[in-house]
TrEMBL record:
Cytoplasm is among the record's keywords: no
Listed SUPFAM superfamilies: C-terminal effector domain of the bipartite response regulators (SSF46894), TPR-like (SSF48452)
Keyword Phosphoprotein found: no
InterPro entries assigned to the protein according to its UniProt record, in alphabetical order: Sig_transdc_resp-reg_C-effctor (IPR016032), TPR-like_helical_dom_sf (IPR011990), TPR_MalT (IPR041617), Tscrpt_reg_LuxR_C (IPR000792), WH-like_DNA-bd_sf (IPR036388)
Entry keywords, A to Z: DNA-binding, Transcription, Transcription regulation
Name listed for the protein in its UniProt record: LuxR C-terminal-related transcriptional regulator
Organism placement in taxonomy: Bacteria, Bacillati, Bacillota, Clostridia, Lachnospirales
Signal peptide: none
PROSITE patterns: HTH_LUXR_2
Domain HTH luxR-type, chain residue ranges per copy: 437-502
CDD domains: LuxR_C_like
Organism: Maccoyibacter intestinihominis
Pfam families (alphabetical): GerE (PF00196), TPR_MalT (PF17874)
Length: 516
């Protein structure tokens, strides 16, 4: 929850807050074994703690009777945040109600419980924007800062689309600069310096003002370095990295990621590591670094078969892209739909747009053009309304092909034409981005696929001709086409390539031969 790192002295031992996640979990485990869990929780969670720390300690909270938290403002707030991270918004509201009734944002007497309730409402994603801004104005009026409460990026490389989605207000950033800057200073104090500039840079980037965005964010990074604002610095450096990356600067990916990681570790914000790992994987997707992609999938990617962790939203979106790269279209669309069900009720427009876009990409790769157009239409509606040009265009060649199909079905307009042009520019830098192994080769006709499957069963051309009731010359013709499309020289290579890229399905009769 806290945005700053504080150091205290305890028994001649230097303790840094927020604690490292592993250290916090160890403390909780020892407390449980000693029968002191509740007391230690009350002590530890009154201090600055990261969202990741709360999440990793969730099992200890679930051990405690929730009714026993009544009257404990800190632990009730933690339970509400934990429920939010689990996507259980009704449960989060119940914990908030246990604090006290929702106070009016202009109440004169602000008790401890009412203060915590107001601050909690600012963080809960289903709080209306109107209510959020009312609370901000109230805090400005009483000159009070919501210490240890808010997170800018929510472990995402974004401010506009962080814990709350502020992208609908991006168009007001220039005209309301003074008011926004004042609000940011009220909420974050000195650590909020640079927030406005980074948010404006993000907005410029989405609207394809890439040079303006790059100049602005590059000039802001030294200020953030001097303020030691690690979370905002992470967002700024990640944005700078993305701008350079989609313009073809893949060689700087590894040293730049290393540089960001050093800043995170130096600032003690290990909760940002997950999104940085995902950002590194996205760079690998553009650069075609399969070794790095496979390592991320095996060791670092979140497992959607367990509880969905809302703070890992960015990593889930990268994982969908990995599924698309590996030809796992069904897994991609299932995960996208699960995320949509979580974020749709809380109006996370940019995340929602991205999920619809990725769902459309899965339909495209599965050659379901009807559903492709339906899903892409939903993404386009949001993108047009809020100006997400780069969100769509950065998908490169895949977006180009999808828009060509969409234009044939629904027609073109200035927005889609602009996105098409931008996506074409990205595609020129990364022609193989998100191409599954099979997409590097020519598509086989139904008859050629059947011949290939019979090859896999060890059948000669004569045997295949007899099986299909065709002439041997016809089979040889299909065989030559298969070799050409799969870029191989002989039957054995053709069969191996067929298994490698999924052109030979195990259900089609290739199972026994492959197992042998």
């Amino acid at each position: 929850m806290a945005r700053t790192v504080r150091t205290v002295r305890k028994s001649k031992e230097e303790v840094h807050y927020p604690r490292h996640v592993k250290e916090l979990c160890q403390i909780m485990e020892e407390a449980k074994e000693q029968g002191q869990l509740r007391a230690v929780m009350e002590e530890e969670f009154k201090k600055p703690v990261s969202m990741t720390g709360i999440w990793e300690c969730r099992s200890y909270f679930h051990m405690e009777d929730e009714n026993g938290y009544e009257g404990d403002t800190v632990l009730l707030s933690i339970r509400a945040l934990l429920a939010t991270m689990e996507g259980k918004l009704k449960e989060a509201r119940c914990y908030a109600d246990m604090l006290c009734e929702a106070p009016a944002p202009d109440e004169e007497e602000l008790t401890r419980e009412k203060f915590f309730r107001l601050i909690l409402e600012m963080v809960l994603p289903d709080t209306t924007d109107k209510r959020f801004f009312q609370i901000v104005c109230f805090l400005e009026r009483i000159h009070t800062k919501p210490i240890q409460s808010l997170i800018l990026s929510a472990c995402r490389p974004s401010i506009l689309d962080g814990f709350r989605d502020f992208t609908p207000y991006g168009k007001y950033l220039v005209s309301y600069k003074d008011e926004i800057t004042k609000s940011v200073q009220t909420l974050y104090g000195n650590s909020g310096k640079g927030v406005y500039e980074v948010a404006l840079a993000e907005w410029n980037y989405q609207n394809n003002k890439c040079f303006d965005a790059l100049v602005l964010v590059t000039g802001t990074i030294p200020l953030l370095e001097s303020e030691q604002d690690v979370q905002c610095l992470f967002v700024a450096m990640a944005l700078q990295f993305r701008i350079l990356l989609v313009n073809g600067q893949t060689k700087m990916a590894e040293p730049y990621i290393k540089k960001i990681r050093e800043r995170i570790q130096r600032g003690g914000r290990d909760e940002l590591e997950s999104s940085l790992d995902a950002l590194e994987c996205r760079a690998a997707l553009y650069g075609g670094n399969m070794e790095r992609i496979e390592a991320w999938l095996e060791y670092q990617a979140p497992d959607e078969n367990k509880e969905l962790y809302m703070m890992d939203m960015y990593a889930y979106l990268i994982k969908i892209r990995c599924y698309l790269l590996n030809g796992k279209h069904m897994m991609a669309i299932v995960l996208a739909k699960r995320l949509i069900n979580l974020i749709e009720p809380v109006n996370r427009y940019m995340d929602l747009c991205e999920c619809y876009m990725l769902s459309a990409m899965a339909c495209y790769k599965a050659k379901d053009n009807k559903r492709l157009c339906e899903e892409l239409q939903k993404a386009l509606d949001l993108a047009k309304q809020y100006g997400y040009y780069r969100l769509l265009a950065d998908e490169g060649a895949c977006m180009v092909e999808m828009l060509k199909i969409y234009h044939k079905e629904a027609g073109a307009d200035s927005f889609t034409e602009n996105v098409l042009d931008l996506a074409g520019s990205v595609a020129s830098h990364f022609p193989d981005y998100l191409k599954s192994p099979g997409e590097h080769y020519g598509a086989l006709t139904e008859r050629e696929a059947e011949v290939l499957r019979l090859m896999a069963r060890g059948m000669s051309n004569d045997m295949i001709a007899e099986e299909l009731d065709k002439k041997v010359g016809t089979v040889k013709f299909h065989t030559a086409n298969i070799f050409k499309k799969l870029k191989v020289q002989n039957r054995q290579q053709a069969v191996e390539r067929g298994y490698e890229i999924g052109f030979i399905g195990l259900e089609k009769g290739g199972t026994d031969e492959k197992k042998k």
